[in-house]
Specification:
alpha/beta; 5-stranded mixed β-sheet; two-stranded antiparallel sheet; 6 helices; globular
Length: about 160
């Protein structure tokens, strides 16, 4: 499972075997800093193209009328996640998640992802709403406490 938050910035979390993958130094999930080629000589960070701040800067406000370019950049980055990690599901949360056309997004992702993986993976909206960050933080604390207790028993 990949959790993708598209708000002021863009970040992701990867859950492997029921545990949050943190990377070697805790920096896993900084997908907003992935680079996108806009033209032969121009690169841009993913979150400078698809975050709420980027959409508001370009369109003046968040709305259901997101541009073709927005969907292209978002779809390419989601396809890269699917091609690299091969998740069953990408759950999208954050403010921008409320304005996405998920049918269109899944169709666009399939254009760019490896067909075998694209046919299995699905992009869906988080059902947890605005409290998802708090629930995630509480879950991390609970898991860390459990790991500390059980880890000390088995040492």
């Amino acid at each position: 499972v990949v959790g993708l938050i598209i708000g002021t910035g863009i970040g992701a979390g990867l859950v492997l075997d029921g545990r949050l993958y943190r990377g070697s130094d805790g920096g896993a999930g900084e997908i907003g800093h992935n680079l996108v080629f806009l033209s032969k000589n121009k690169l841009e960070q993913f979150e400078h193209l698809c975050s709420a701040a980027a959409v508001i800067k370009k369109q003046g406000k968040l709305s259901k009328k997101l541009s073709k370019d927005f969907y292209k950049y978002l779809s390419v980055n989601l396809a890269n996640l699917i091609n690299t990690i091969n998740p069953d599901v990408i759950i999208v949360g954050g403010g921008v998640s409320n304005f996405l056309d998920y049918k269109l997004l899944n169709k666009e992702v399939k254009k760019y992802a490896i067909p075998l993986h694209a046919n299995r993976a699905i992009v869906v909206k988080s059902v947890l709403g605005g409290g998802s960050g708090l629930l995630g933080a509480a879950s991390l604390v609970t898991h860390n406490q459990r790991d500390n207790v059980f880890g000390s028993i088995f040492r």
